[in-house]
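tool_call: predict_structure(chain=1)
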Amino acid sequence: MDVKGSGRTRRTEKAEQTRRTILESATALFIDPGYPATTIDAVAARADVAVETVYKRFGSKSGLLTAILEPAIVGNEEGIDLMDLPEVTEIRQCPDQQQQIRLLARFSRTILERTAPAHRILASAAASDPAAASTQAKDAERRRATQSAFIELLLENSPLRDDMPPATAVDTYGVLANPSTFALLTEQRGWSPDDYERWLGDGLGRLLLAD
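tool_result:
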């Protein structure tokens, strides 16, 4: 029996559980009472860990925010790149643009639904914390780069409609598949995520593709 190996495994599992507890505590507090009102001390108290533990693992409140947002975007904590996910491989290999659009709508809906709490926190945090504002800007840049890559996948199958340059297609996609748009429709207008997915697929198909 490898006693040393077993001990390392238990320490690793305990460290991961502590990390999860801190992030869960931070998420709850960033939602209520809100990001500006939450202190590292409060996160540590809720997670029942030392303040130094939070600082050592995440560095700052904005570090906590990034650690909450990143896994939510890709749906895992293994650091897999978004473009390497199986859903994207399916979109890439699909030979039909209309079906690609439907797959893109489903994938975008899944990400926006999963990241909605983190994006609510991020929007609130960015108003008062320059580091959080920087995180928000980087998130927007990454989203645009990813959506640009998706438009390229569509173009590999066939051209878009004649009056739709690729850059305009990216902007169109970016407006429709945007955290603010998703929040407006699902949180304020009462749409279900399924309603949003159907609307997104229909809108992208009508606006981007030739008849």
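agent: The mean pLDDT is 92. Proceeding to next step.
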